[in-house]
Design goal:
This protein is of the alpha/beta class. The protein contains nine helices and eleven strands.
């Protein structure tokens, strides 16, 4: 069984598209369950799910929690052999969950599988990243997070020259969609709750690599991601992002090596 864990907070319009793709349009062949953790929404998301998708296991928070803590909470309530962390702004494409499942079943030495993410216009999204460096961080701040910034450090960080048609090892991918065997998730002890928001995904992938559990990009599994970027403009979320950066560097050091070229696929 696959346990699909989604955390939402006032994401009703996105949740409608996600559950439609999951239960109606592109329903997986493999047995699955969905756990939805509602982070104190006020837009009647819970009412909508209860009325239209009664199979979904709903967990309602009484107080808002961070991204990692919410996902860990959802995983603890799940039963599947595999965990699929799926953000509310994802729309599943045909066969994506089944392809992830089949690859994981035949490659039992992997740590984390990630799909190919597309923008709403179906162009390839820069979802795969290299581990952050101080230079890349500086240029991301200078360019205000602009993915189209003409800078080598930014291009390398966003893996712009990556062949997105090829199965390959990667440093990490944004946490909008991660597919993880339950035993790996437990070995990693889930997401690190020292981060409230941002960097949990990079931290999880780095810790997986440190346990010799590779992070693998599987382009045969495709999802559309309506990227809800909250820290590209200065504000509270920018402060949270920078705080998480410092937590990350404190834990892992300022010079993080890539592991993806140390083994062959």
């Amino acid at each position: 069984m696959i346990s699909i864990v989604t955390v939402g907070m006032n994401h009703l319009l996105y949740i409608k598209a996600l559950v439609h793709s999951l239960y109606i349009e592109n329903c997986p062949k493999v047995d699955f369950e969905m756990i939805y953790v509602d982070n104190c929404s006020k837009d009647k998301t819970v009412d909508f799910i209860r009325a239209n998708y009664p199979r979904v296991h709903i967990i309602e928070n009484k107080t808002p929690l961070g991204f990692g803590e919410n996902n860990n909470k959802g995983v603890r309530a799940s039963k599947g052999k595999y965990i699929a962390i799926i953000n509310p702004d994802i729309v599943l494409q045909e066969g994506c969950i089944d392809n992830l499942y089949e690859y994981a079943e035949t490659h039992t030495d992997i740590g984390i599988l990630v799909p190919k993410l597309l923008n709403p216009d179906l162009s390839v999204q820069y979802s795969v990243r290299g581990f952050i460096s101080l230079k890349a961080l500086l240029w991301r701040i200078v360019s205000k997070g602009n993915d189209n910034a003409a800078n080598t450090e930014v291009s390398n960080y966003l893996c712009k020259n990556m062949d997105t048609s090829k199965i390959q090892f990667i440093d990490w991918s944004i946490g909008a969609a991660l597919f993880i065997p339950r035993d790996v998730y437990e070995r990693l002890k889930g997401f690190d709750t020292d981060y409230f928001l941002y960097m949990e995904d990079e931290d999880l992938c780095l810790r997986s690599w440190k346990l010799n559990l590779p992070v693998v990009y599987l382009p045969q599994a495709v999802m559309v991601h309506n990227h809800l970027r909250g820290s590209s403009k200065l504000g509270k979320k920018t402060v949270l992002h920078l705080k998480s950066m410092m937590t990350f560097f404190t834990k892992h050091g300022f010079f993080i090596r890539s592991y993806k070229n140390t083994i062959s696929i």
